[in-house]
Write a structure and sequence with these properties.
Layout: E1 6-10, H1 16-23, H2 27-35, E2 39-44, E3 50-59, E4 63-70, H3 77-95, E5 98-101, H4 109-114, E6 118-129, E7 141-145, H5 152-159, E8 189-193, E9 198-202, E10 204-207, E11 210-214, E12 217-218, H6 230-246, E13 251-257, H7 261-268, E14 273-282
Parallel strand pairs: 4-5, 11-13
Antiparallel strand pairs: 1-2, 2-3, 3-4, 5-14, 6-13, 6-14, 7-8, 8-9, 9-12, 10-11
Length: about 280
């Protein structure tokens, strides 16, 4: 079917109805996605039927993320793969450095491989009983509840520690406000260095029966193993887990995008288990 798919440029502002169909969400819930796109395309059958759409969402350190994919079709996964491959090839040719999540029919792993992409990282959801170990904060750093650090610039600096990770995107001021994404600033921790600058962040949100935690973000130069590096990441995660236990949460989930094998191993060693894993593929 790939030779029967035609990909045409589209205006990002025209994509919300297609994004709603692709993600199975109300149009008003996905309209913000179109505002983040630098370019967009739609895929069509010979008769003009729209088969899918893709947009480029710029990433600070990794080019751009592919949003969208193939619409579910009567022909099944083979037809959807052909559409996904055509869209992924077009986006790569136009956007250069791009990546995409292998997520069901939208962009399957097979479709991305056929377009020349390679697996480079993953989105993972880990879950399990709330870890019990006490946090050990490395010398030269302090952990404070995010609610005690209201300065927006400092919070944005902390959120920016994620920006180089594959699967993350540029943070906006709204993401640093109390309650953004459902995160509770009293259940979240920010790490500050000796000069008072943001060194890391770990946010959590109360859910029914468990605490939802973002894997910690730590400044790139502090991620090395040993004092001040991996220890800071562990301190943030265990510190938030301690807050969750004090709030009565006996279970947690931890979401991570682009975490390293060593970071995954450290989280698994805490008794957490992988419940969901979606590979992230990058164009060469």
């Amino acid at each position: 079917m790939s030779s029967d798919v035609t990909v045409r440029p589209a205006a990002p502002a025209d994509l919300p109805p297609l994004l709603a169909a692709l993600y199975g969400a109300p149009e008003e819930a996905v309209a913000w996605m179109a505002d983040t796109l630098s370019a967009a395309w739609t895929a069509h059958a010979p008769g003009g039927e729209v088969l899918g759409a893709v947009g480029l969402r710029p990433s600070p350190a990794n080019g751009a993320e592919l949003l969208g994919g193939a619409l579910a079709q009567a022909g099944g996964q083979g037809h959807e793969d052909a559409v996904g491959t055509a869209l992924a090839r077009t986006a790569h040719a136009a956007g250069g450095r791009v990546y995409a999540f292998a997520d069901g029919h939208l962009f399957s792993a097979a479709a991305l491989r056929a377009a020349g992409y390679r697996e480079a990282a993953a989105y993972r959801l880990l879950a399990g009983p709330t870890p019990q170990a006490a946090p050990q904060v490395p010398p030269g750093f302090v952990l404070r509840p995010l609610v005690e650090v209201p300065d927006l610039a400092t919070r944005l600096d902390a959120l920016a520690t994620y920006e180089d990770r594959l699967g993350h995107h540029a943070v906006i001021p709204a993401a640093a406000t109390d309650g953004a994404g459902g995160y509770d600033p009293a259940l979240s921790l920010i790490a500050l260095d000796a000069s008072g600058q943001a060194a890391g962040l770990c946010r959590a949100a109360p859910e029914e029966g468990y605490a939802r935690i973002d894997a910690p973000g730590v400044r790139p130069e502090l991620r090395r193993a040993g004092p001040g590096g991996g220890d800071l990441r562990a301190a943030l995660l265990l510190g938030v887990c301690a807050l969750a236990r004090a709030r009565g949460f006996g279970d947690v989930s931890v979401e991570g995008w682009g975490d390293t094998p060593a970071e995954l191993a450290a989280d698994l060693a805490l008794g957490l288990e992988v419940e969901i894993e979606n590979p992230i593929y990058v164009a060469p």
